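Module 6 notes. Inverse folding takes a fixed backbone as the condition and produces residue identities as the prediction. Think of it as a translation problem where the source language is geometry and the target language is the twenty amino acids. Below is one complete input and output pair. Work through it position by position during the lab.
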C-alpha cells in the first residue's frame, strides 16, 4: 500500500481566487454571499448567491480558449493550473501515463445548456452552437484539465451531486494507494448561478429566500431556511509519498481515509437517523486507523437546510459517540455558499488549512443554535485548536455520502 499526500492546491471561490486568499478569508470569517448580479433574479424569489468575484480567465488561458468552455470548466482549469504550479511538478520529468485527473461536477455546463435551449427555441435546432455538447457535458472540466497539463493517466468525473468532489478526492486517493498512479489532480468545479440553476433549486424549496446576506447561509441556526448557491472550483494535487519526496515537493497534508456509501432512503433528504453518514464517517476513520478521540476538526456538510443540519448532527453522534461533543465542527458554507459538486474540494482545503495552522474556521452565521444541533459548531469566530486529523463530510442528493480523512504532515 502506498501513502498519499497533498502537494498542491488551487482555488477559485466566492471568497478568493487562489488557495492562499481563500484560506485567509476563511480564517477571518469573510462572507462571500451578496445580491445576485449575473441576471435579474426578481422572478425567482431568490435574491442572494455566493458568486465568484473579480476573476479574469485570461490569466490562465487565451480568450478564444475560454469562449470554447462553460464557466465550470473555466473555473476548474484555472484552479488546476494554480495547483500544478503550486506543486512544482515538471510534467516533462514525470511519467505522464501515471499522471491523472479526477475532477467532478454535479451538474456540468448548466449555463451553456440554458443558453442553447433558449437559442434553439428562438432560432431552431440548426442554430445550436457547434460546441454545445463538449461545453455542456460534466466530464469536460476533467478533460480540459488533462489536455492543458498533459495528464495521460486516468481521467474521469465522479457525479454524486453534492458529494462529487469528495468522492473524486477519495477515488484519487485509492487509485494512488493501490499503485495505479503517481499523481492525480482531484476536486470539483461548478457554475450554476443562472436562471435555471437558481430557479430549479428554488422550485425544490432548497434555497433560502432570505434577503440579508448575513442571515442567508446560517448552518445549524434555528432560523435556517435553505442553502445559498455558490460557484467555483477547488483542485488538489494528490501524490504518492515517495514520488513527492524524491522530487523534493512541499507537502501540505496526508490523505489517510475515505468512506463512501448511500442512505438508500430518499432522493433529496438524508436519513434522519444519521446512520448512512455516520457509517460513512466510521469507514473513513477505520481506514485511517484512528478513533473518535483523535479527530481535531470536522468540516461539516452543513448546508443550512432544515433537514440536513439536524440529520448531520445525529450522524456525527452516531459515528463519534460522546466524543462528538468535544470536537470543533464548522460549516464553511456559511461563507462560501454551497458549491454543489465542487463543495467537497474547497472544504477539503479548509481541513488542510486547519491541519497546517492548528486553526478552526468559523460558522459565521450561527447566532441562535437549534436545540437539535447541540455540538460545538464554532459560531461566528474561528479559533486556535490543535488538529492532528480532520474529517470532511459531503452528503449528496440521492443519498450519496462521502467522507475524507486528512492527517497533519510532519517531516519524516
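Target side of the pair, the amino acids:
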Amino acid at each position: 500500500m502506498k501513502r498519499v499526500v497533498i502537494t498542491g492546491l488551487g482555488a477559485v471561490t466566492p471568497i478568493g481566487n487562489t488557495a492562499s486568499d481563500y484560506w485567509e478569508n476563511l480564517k477571518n470569517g469573510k462572507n462571500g454571499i451578496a445580491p445576485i448580479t449575473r441576471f435579474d433574479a426578481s422572478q425567482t424569489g431568490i435574491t442572494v448567491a455566493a458568486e465568484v468575484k473579480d476573476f479574469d480567465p485570461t490569466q490562465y488561458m487565451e480568450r478564444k480558449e475560454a469562449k470554447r468552455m462553460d464557466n465550470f470548466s473555466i473555473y476548474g482549469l484555472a484552479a488546476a493550473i494554480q495547483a500544478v504550479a503550486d506543486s512544482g511538478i515538471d510534467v516533462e520529468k514525470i511519467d505522464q501515463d501515471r499522471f491523472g485527473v479526477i475532477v467532478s461536477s454535479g451538474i456540468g455546463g448548466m449555463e451553456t445548456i440554458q443558453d442553447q435551449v433558449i437559442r434553439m427555441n428562438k432560432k431552431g435546432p440548426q442554430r445550436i452552437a457547434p460546441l454545445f455538447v463538449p461545453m455542456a457535458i460534466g466530464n469536460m472540466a476533467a478533460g480540459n484539465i488533462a489536455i492543458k497539463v498533459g495528464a495521460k493517466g486516468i481521467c474521469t468525473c465522479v457525479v454524486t451531486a453534492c458529494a462529487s468532489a469528495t468522492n473524486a478526492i477519495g477515488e484519487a486517493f485509492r487509485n494512488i494507494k493501490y499503485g495505479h498512479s503517481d499523481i492525480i489532480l482531484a476536486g470539483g468545479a461548478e457554475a450554476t448561478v443562472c436562471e435555471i440553476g437558481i430557479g430549479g433549486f428554488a422550485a425544490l424549496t432548497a434555497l433560502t429566500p432570505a434577503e440579508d446576506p448575513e442571515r442567508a447561509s446560517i448552518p445549524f441556526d434555528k432560523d435556517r431556511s435553505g442553502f445559498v448557491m455558490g460557484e467555483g472550483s477547488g483542485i488538489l494535487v494528490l501524490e504518492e509519498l515517495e514520488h513527492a519526496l524524491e522530487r523534493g515537493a512541499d507537502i501540505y497534508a496526508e490523505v489517510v481515509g475515505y468512506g463512501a456509501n448511500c442512505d438508500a432512503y430518499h432522493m433529496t433528504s438524508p436519513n434522519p437517523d444519521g446512520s448512512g453518514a455516520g457509517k460513512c464517517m466510521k469507514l473513513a476513520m477505520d481506514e485511517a486507523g484512528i478513533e473518535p478521540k483523535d479527530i481535531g476538526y470536522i468540516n461539516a456538510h452543513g448546508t443550512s437546510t432544515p433537514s440536513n443540519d439536524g440529520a448531520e448532527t445525529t450522524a456525527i453522534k452516531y459515528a463519534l459517540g460522546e466524543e462528538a461533543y468535544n470536537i470543533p465542527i464548522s460549516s464553511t458554507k456559511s461563507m462560501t455558499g454551497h458549491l454543489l459538486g465542487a463543495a467537497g474540494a474547497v472544504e477539503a482545503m479548509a481541513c488542510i488549512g486547519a491541519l497546517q495552522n492548528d486553526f478552526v474556521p468559523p460558522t459565521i452565521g450561527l447566532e441562535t443554535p437549534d436545540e437539535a444541533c447541540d455540538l460545538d459548531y464554532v459560531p461566528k469566530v474561528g479559533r486556535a485548536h490543535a488538529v492532528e486529523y480532520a474529517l470532511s463530510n459531503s452528503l449528496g442528493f440521492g443519498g450519496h455520502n462521502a467522507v475524507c480523512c486528512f492527517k497533519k504532515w510532519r517531516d519524516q
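Reference fact for the lab report: DSSP finds 13 helices and 14 strands in the chain.
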